[in-house]
Amino acid sequence: MFLLALFTFAGSLTVALALFFWYQGDSEIVFKTEAAHTFQVKHEPLKREIYCRCLIPLTNQGRQHGMVINVFCQPMYYGKIMEKLEMIPRLRLCREPLRKNGYWEAVIIKKKTTHLTELEVKIRAQIDLKSLVKEVPRLTVLIYYQTVGRNGIQLQLAEIQFDLNQGVLNG
Q: Which of 162, 155, 149, 143 is closest to 31 using CA atoms?
């Protein structure tokens, strides 16, 4: 009888602890690319450069604090034209200054908070910008990032596009 009561108590305690930890949740940190705004595409024909910029909300939708580490941006490959381009993507929290080396310092994102990030891409071309925009009318940038929460490290991916046809000509 004593063993039955002990096993019942232990089982109830295990279920209660499991429900408690399940309810606590985890962080759910995402780059909300669908909510990106303030898009700017600026053409500098004399320098053969295009500057792309936008603001992307970084949100923790979860019930726990989490951390974002190892953030990398990569423009998608568009074939042979890439041999004639140099692309420099950089992403930063708006509250932090842009680092020259593009390094993303690990940051804790508290639960139910949003921070603005700024994505900048500089494109240097060895060809005329009109030819470039004709071949690559949209520039897609992939954002790879790792989040750390209660469930360990998770690799995440976000994608955003710039319409190079919408650029403002300068120069």
A: 143
